[in-house]
Amino acid sequence: MYYRIFDEVLASDVLLPQLDELSGTPTATIHLNEGSASDPEDALALVHEWDGLASYRTPSGYLLDFEEGLRADLQPSKGKIVCEKAQDLDEVRFQHLISDQVIPRLIGHLGGLVLHAAAVSLQGEVLVLVGESGVGKSTLSSWLVVEKSASLIGDDAIRIVTSGDRFNVFGSYPGLRVCEDSYEWIAAGRQGQHQPPVVAADKYKVKPMHIATDGELSRMCILEQAATTETVNIGASDVVNVLSQVFVLDPGDTEGAQRRMEVVDAMSRQGLLLGVKVEHDYARIPDLMQAIGV
Predict the structure, then answer these.
(1) Mean pLDDT by 10 residues, the chain (294 residues)
(2) What is the CB neighbour count within 10 angstroms for residue 87?
């Protein structure tokens, strides 16, 4: 099977129904197979630990070890992934970890800026929303999809690739992952699919009617939870907040970190970054969008 993820072509023997399947036999840049993965005890070194995930260096590249029961060997130089899942790992959760964690980390290592973010296209402009989990990225993109008929580029992982002085935005796949209250709100609106949604990681997955695969960045909003809704000037801490949301295999890779910093700094110099304080209140979303300029 062949799928599109970001601006790459994935050849996979793992079923990933959330991704856009491609017809024919396109030239693949990423190859995913299910098989036997490495044992962490045989790894060269522990690289980094996140909540529920550890990254190791191996002779051929990296090993990602998820506590939930998934191991993935990655060979960045070959664009190759071999994954092994535990028998008790739910298939939907397995698919989510592959498409929303493993592949974004590999592609983030290869180049460009891969962020835990949402992106929509509205009247020819592309808006990217980035921030900590739970700050409201999916809620705000859902509001734009339902209330403004925006086209969703992506909700979980976004890749930004520079082209001269332009920044091209690609989504991993065009689907929303939202909490139950947001899903009910979407289902009551004009855009969401009115069918039982897939539930993964305690969130509902729904594919809007209006989608887009990519676009040129118009503005990136760096979201921060607050008691008031307002836009603020960008400071050094906001740039750090963007970089804290990247998908990486090795946070200690100084060359990769420098490359990502240069991309964010270039966006800042062009005035594309906007700090946004967000209230967790649906009723205030129109005020927030007016402050952003939507």
Answers:
(1) 96 94 94 96 95 96 97 96 96 93 95 92 92 81 83 91 94 76 57 44 63 91 79 72 90 92 91 84 76 75
(2) 5
Backbone angles phi, psi at 16, to 5 degrees: -130, 80
Contact between 155 and 131 (Cβ < 8 Å): no
Cβ proximity of 99 and 19 under 8 Å: yes
How far is 150 from 141, CA to CA, in rounded Å? Answer: 8
Q: How many CB atoms lie within 10 A of CB 48?
A: 13
- pTM score, whole prediction: 0.88
Enter the tokens of residue 232.
């603020």
| Length, in residues, of the chain | 294
Cβ-based neighbour number of residue 73 at 10 Å: 21
Alpha-carbon gap, residue 161 to 111, rounded angstroms: 8
Maximum pairwise Cα distance, the chain: 54
Cα–Cα dist 191/221, whole Å? 23
Q: Which of 101, 20, 25, 110 is nearest to 66 (CA)?
A: 101
